[in-house]
Design a protein that fits this description.
single chain, about 220 residues, about 0% strand, mainly alpha, about 85% helix
Length: about 220
């Protein structure tokens, strides 16, 4: 077995997969904690909003609360205030009151969705590339092992098992890295869609309340 060495390419591939795994699990933990926090904030705000006795009280609860729905409502109320005060004259604030409020709510909803989608592309990239990185390490490791075997002139099990087994580990680690990343991406994407539907429903309700009150907060 003298002369058989570990390929630096295989070692580098393994370290790259370990780095991918650390990044993936860090994002998973952060996203899970963020999803839990946002769900709690939205739940608390919705309770305060729908228990308000009027839009004025609901506006105060939006300004004092955190979370996507609270920020969406706060932007809506600020838009309503701007409508009553004349507001800024530009294309964004052109049109009737309903159109202006709808654009404002839609714009804020898109900003919130962009925040929720942060990190998902990294998980998708890791999930799709990690198996191929592992496969590359395996192929290169086997080539390196065959080269070492040719140098030693022996193809016994004691010579073959070590290098090839080390090379196959790269594929195993690649798959083990990709699976949680893909699962986390699918879960995160589903949560983003649920938040998008929740914000759309809330924006519609807020728009109807504003129309009912004549676009007056008081």
């Amino acid at each position: 077995m003298q002369g058989i060495t570990t390929s630096p390419i295989v070692a580098g591939t393994l370290w790259l997969l370990v780095f991918f795994s650390v990044v993936s699990w860090t994002l998973i933990v952060v996203k899970v904690w963020t999803q839990w926090r946002l769900s709690r904030e939205n739940r608390q705000f919705c309770q305060a909003f729908w228990n308000a006795k009027g839009l004025g009280e609901a506006e105060k609860s939006a300004a004092a609360s955190a979370g996507p729905l609270a920020r969406l409502a706060d932007v809506g109320f600020k838009t309503l205030r701007g409508l009553r005060q004349g507001g800024e004259q530009n294309l964004q604030h052109s049109g009737d009151q309903q159109d202006i409020l709808e654009r404002s709510l839609r714009s804020q909803a898109q900003k919130e969705l962009h925040r929720l989608e942060s990190g998902l592309m990294i998980l998708a990239s890791i999930g799709s590339t990690a198996p191929f990185v592992g496969l590359f390490g395996t192929v290169w490791g086997i080539m390196h092992a065959l080269s070492d075997i040719s140098k030693t002139g022996s193809a016994g099990l004691d010579v073959v098992a070590g290098p090839i087994g080390e090379a196959l580990i790269a594929t195993a680690i690649g798959i083990a890295t990709a699976i949680p990343a893909v699962l986390a991406y699918n879960y995160g994407l589903r949560r983003v869609k649920l938040y998008a539907a929740e914000m759309e429903h809330f924006a519609t309700d807020l728009l109807h309340l504003a129309m009912k009150s004549g676009f007056r907060v008081e």
